[in-house]
Amino acid sequence: MESVRIALVQMQSFVGKTHENLAKIKKHVQEAKKKGVQIICFPELAAQGYTRKRAKELAEISTGYCGTYLSNLSKEYDIQIIAGLIEKSENDKPYITQLIIDQGKINKYRKTHIGESEELYFTPGNELPVFASTLATIGVQICFDCHFPEVSTVQAIKGAEIIFAPHASPTMVKDRKEIWLKYLRARAYDNGVYVAACNLIGQNGDGSDFIGGTLVIDPKGNIIGEDFNGEEAMLIVDLPKEKINILRQNERKTMRNSFYLKSRRPEIYKELTD
Q1: Count: domains in the chain
Q2: Both ends of the chain: CA-CA distance in Å?
Q3: Could you say which residues of the chain have pLDDT below 70?
Q4: Any idea what DSSP says for residue 120?
Q5: CA distance 166 to 201
Q6: Residue 223 to residue 40: CA distance in whole angstroms
Q7: Residue 227 contacts by C-beta under 8 Å, 6 or more apart in sequence?
Q8: d(Cα 89, Cα 182) in Å, to the nearest integer?
Q9: Rounded to 5 degrees, what are φ and ψ at 148?
Q10: Alpha-helix residue ranges (DSSP H) falling in the chain
């Protein structure tokens, strides 16, 4: 991994107002580029707005209008963009997808663990890919995915050095920071990865209200960036390469810098995964 500057956006996104949402994304990309950001992440379903009942109506293919717009932004500003999209599927239930766009090339992660309230409206994905670039290898988990430890472990074993965690967590959650710290710190520490989370914020025009928040945790479980001020904002954080590379490249001199996944014994865990 190279040292990298990332940006996380807590963003108000209105359902069905795709052009306005994308225009807002563009402004953040422009600002991020001026400040030397190399990877910018937007919340779950930021492009069309988070909705369940209108999901089928608003769904697009990954290379449709939203994907093409974001791809062009990535190329124009030479920045990696990670942004949420309602993606058409082969059936009536679309995917909750995060596009990962690098130099205009579109990759995607489909939310693999959907909540009970989403089961009637969305199709879960079935793959846990990681995405390598000259900067870093990244994994993506969307909201509910983060509650399942195996997801982070699989992505870290596959080489993920940064896990981005875009959310659509509502205001009913109350203290987003307190809840995130209960499990995102563990995901970072146990798997020796950076974890970077962001959330939708404010009302979406479709009856939902989101609590916002951005948080970055280093591979030892330490908070290195946060914003829970309750307003639309962009958090910029530098991720030094040394904290990952000392774990991954066998450069450690003490147990404190162990990459624990190297000592796994999957043969004795088999009964837990069958």
Answers
A1: 1
A2: 33
A3: 250-255, 271-274
A4: T
A5: 12
A6: 19
A7: 10, 213, 214, 233, 235
A8: 33
A9: -110, 105
A10: 18-34, 55-58, 65-77, 149-157, 176-191, 242-248, 270-273
Q: Cβ contacts of residue 64 below 8 Å, gap of 6+?
A: none
Half-sphere exposure of 168 (CA within 13 A, CB side): 30
- Indicate which CATH number applies to the domain containing 112: 3.60.110.10
Picking from 198, 237, 199, the residue whose alpha carbon sits closest to that of residue 218 is 237
The answer to whether 181 and 146 are in contact (CB under 8 A) is no
pLDDT of amino acid 274: 54
Gap between the Cα atoms of 177 and 198, Å rounded = 11
Cα–Cα distance, 89 to 228 (Å, whole number): 34
Neighbours of 200 (CB within 10 A): 32
Q: Note the pLDDT of residue 130.
A: 98
Q: How far apart are CA 25 and CA 46, in angstroms?
A: 9
C-alpha distances in Å from residue 130, one per residue of 100, 157, 163, 242, 274: 10, 10, 9, 21, 23
CB-based contacts of 41, cutoff 8 Å, min separation 6? 6, 7, 8, 9, 82, 83, 164, 166, 196, 198
Q: Which residue has the tokens 């987003």?
A: 176
Residue pair 41/198 in contact by the 8 Å Cβ criterion = yes
Residue-wise pLDDT tens digits, 117-147: 999 999 999 999 999 999 999 999 999 999 9
Q: How far out from the chain centre does Cα 260 lie? A: 23
Determine the structural domain holding residue 78 and report its residue range: 4-273
Residue 83, CB-side half-sphere exposure with 13 Å CA sphere: 31
